[in-house]
Amino acid sequence: MTELTQETVMQALTRVVDPEKKQNIIELGMVDFASVCDNNVKVDLILPSTTYPERDALIDATRQVLQGLPDVKLVTVGISLKTPAATKPFQRPADKPLAPVAPKQLLPNIKNVIAISSGKGGVGKTSVSVNLACALSQMGYRVGIVDADIYGPNVPLMMGLRHAKITEQAPNGKPMPPSIHDVKVISVAFMISEEQPVVWRGPMLDRIIRQFLSDFEWGELDFLLVDLPPGTGDAQLTIMQAASLSGAIIVTTPQEVALHDSRKGLAMFVGQNIPCLGIVENMSYFEGDDGKRYEIFGHGGGRNAASQLKVPFLGEVPIVIEQRAQADAGQPVVIYEPDGKQAAIFRQIADNMIDNLRRVHQQEKAVAHV
Question: What is the pLDDT of residues 85-131, one digit of tens each?
């Protein structure tokens, strides 16, 4: 009888044919990971896109083939949509020197670290961060969030982890971030009482953010989103120095006062040679019960700013009353209404971000070969 090994699993997978391309998934390079442990088989598949129409058929065919192998106890088929690995920033020409950047602490098990930033408070940056994280998770990615807004840590509240504590340890002894909706989360809110203010100077803030990155067991992630505080201060500097950022997303509202501050935030990342993956216009408009569209803060400012600054525009998110109420209850809109319009908007923003990230990665590879 044939022994159940990784080799026999890979051989069996040659019998799984992609319904669209009519080739087996090994030939197409669609198998990212395959393992056998105690007769349990785990396989991660790479799909061509996040909306691949043959996704379910491919998963079913893979599971059926593997369940037919001798001595198999459990078959797990996951989706590991390959993402561009985080790479070093562009090297600017010598005649355009940049301010020096401290050596970066690499996170080898995390493919992409994305900063979510806003120049101004009150634009809904954290709401965008948690819904983007949940959308990426629903699309098959492995996701985590660092709540780097140390003085106003709201990610746990919006994610439904308001009363969570750090209790679990990995086999290597490192504490594990709490997880919900298949998203791992770390926040200073897990370490203090809800009423306790954080009154720290810059060095303490720098230390805790570095600990979030290096002292916790994140495992393997496709995306680690960093929800930054507003502005261009200590937290932003720490993240740019401590992590190899794949890019940054700027969240703004349509009115000029928010856009003015967002441009400063963008300039900060550009000055450190960190690609801007795009601008999100939050609170873009409101649709009333009468069916009319009300542009409370104006409209189109984010798109116009993206055009002027020559950076991508990721999308516009309308104001939805239920989204605010559910966020207070710890239910991101992508979770409580996954088939709704708002969830579709966040998934489209996620798709746009990934496309821009791939372009950045391709440009970096081209520059490296020059």
Answer: 333 332 333 443 333 333 344 577 888 899 998 876 778 889 999 99
Q: Cβ(176)–Cβ(170) under 8 Å?
A: yes
Q: Which among 167, 188, 170 is positioned nearest to 178, based on CA atoms?
A: 167
| 238, 205 contact by CB (below 8 A) | yes
Collapse the DSSP code of 292 into the 3-class scheme (helix H, G, I; strand E, B; otherwise coil) and give the result. coil
Task: Please give the Cα distance from 197 to 195 (Å, whole number).
Answer: 6
177-211 residue pLDDT tens: 999 888 999 998 898 877 677 766 767 878 888 88
Which among 2, 6, 14, 7 has a CA at the least distance from the CA of 61? Answer: 14
Neighbours of 106 (CB within 10 A): 13
Residue 2, SS3 per DSSP: coil
Q: What's the pTM?
A: 0.69
Which H helix or E strand runs over 167?
A: none
| Residue recorded with tokens 């520059």 | 367
Q: Which amino acid, residue 336?
A: Y
Taking alpha carbons only, the member of 231, 145, 127 closest to residue 190 is 145
CA dist 305 and 263 (Å) reads 8
**Distance from C-alpha of 306 to C-alpha of 309, rounded to nearest angstrom:** 5
Residues 126/265, Cβ–Cβ less than 8 Å: no
Tell me which residue has tokens 């070093």: 88
Alpha-carbon gap, residue 170 to 262, rounded angstroms: 39
**Residue closest to 130 by CA, chosen among 210, 216, 225:** 225
Helix, coil or strand: residue 237: helix
Pairing between strand 40-45 and 31-37?
antiparallel
Token pair 């391709």 is found at: 362
